[in-house]
């Protein structure tokens, strides 16, 4: 009886251990599934690149730029978008504010796949995001304001070089240029200090250098021509002096002969 009781206790302990092991495996599996779902949700809602879509509507939407860690405005065409598309900046920040690039291990691959799976669309031009662009005064400050063919209505500011001030205009949402700022302060900070001594682009520098070279060449040729003309005149004067000197000598000889 004692042996059978010990066997029953051993079986009961083994059964409990099996149940505990199954519960542990189940919890680990559930945690993995939840983590995978969370990672997939983060990727879809926060790490995916913005998608304008093929349609031609002009809907102002917000998307999370994980590189900058901020929510940015873009124009949504109305169809074939993705989950990184929010109606307001507050909704975007609430969903993705703490997300960084390290949230997944293959961000670059996922972004390339997202970019290749949708048709190319015209990029928005906005001078507020110019950290990676080399400053070009002609593009950022001297260019005329461009509304663009799209029909959105975004208030923007551009720098007027003639008035030396920033003026507001309405941006349609696509095919603009770099002289387009979200605030008057950003416009003035970008262009007002540069107005007195704007940096010329490479093409303009080449043209200026070529013009200076041509001017120096013209001055050199002009000076050479003046020098050659003066030398020719001097030689001519010397030749005339030589002729007159010979004539005077002959006349003097004739006079001396008559005297004799």
From TrEMBL:
Signal peptide span: 1-35
Matches recorded under InterPro entries: Kunitz_BPTI (IPR002223), Kunitz_BPTI_sf (IPR036880), Prtase_inh_Kunz-CS (IPR020901)
One GO BP annotation of this record: epithelial cell morphogenesis involved in placental branching
Record field: transmembrane: 206-229
Localization: Cell membrane; Cytoplasm
Biased segments, Polar residues type: 108-119
PROSITE patterns named among the record's database cross-references: BPTI_KUNITZ_1, BPTI_KUNITZ_2
Region (Disordered): 108-131
Listed name of the protein: Kunitz-type protease inhibitor 2
Organism of origin: Rhinopithecus roxellana
């Amino acid at each position: 009886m004692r042996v059978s009781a010990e066997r029953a206790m051993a079986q009961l302990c083994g059964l409990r251990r099996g149940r505990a092991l199954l519960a542990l495996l189940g919890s680990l599996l559930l945690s993995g599934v939840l983590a995978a779902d969370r990672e997939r949700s983060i990727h879809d809602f926060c790490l995916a690149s913005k998608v304008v879509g093929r349609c031609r509507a002009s809907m102002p939407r917000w998307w999370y730029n994980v590189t900058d860690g901020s929510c940015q405005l873009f124009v949504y065409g109305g169809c074939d978008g993705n989950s990184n598309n929010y109606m307001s900046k507050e909704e975007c920040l609430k969903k993705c504010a703490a997300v960084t690039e390290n949230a997944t291990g293959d961000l670059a691959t996922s972004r390339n796949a997202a970019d290749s799976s949708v048709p190319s669309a015209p990029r928005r031009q906005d001078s507020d995001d110019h950290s990676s662009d080399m400053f070009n005064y002609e593009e950022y400050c001297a260019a005329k304001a461009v509304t663009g063919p799209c029909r959105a209505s975004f208030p923007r500011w551009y720098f007027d070089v003639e008035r030396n001030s920033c003026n507001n205009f309405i941006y349609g949402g696509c095919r603009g240029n770099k002289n387009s700022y979200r605030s008057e302060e950003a416009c003035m900070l970008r262009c007002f200090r540069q107005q007195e001594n704007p940096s010329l682009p490479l093409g303009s520098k080449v043209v200026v250098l070529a013009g200076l070279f041509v001017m120096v060449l013209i001055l050199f040729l002009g000076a050479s021509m003046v020098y050659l003309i003066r030398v020719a005149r001097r030689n001519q004067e010397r030749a005339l002096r030589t002729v007159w000197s010979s004539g005077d000598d002959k006349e003097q000889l004739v006079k001396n002969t008559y005297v004799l």
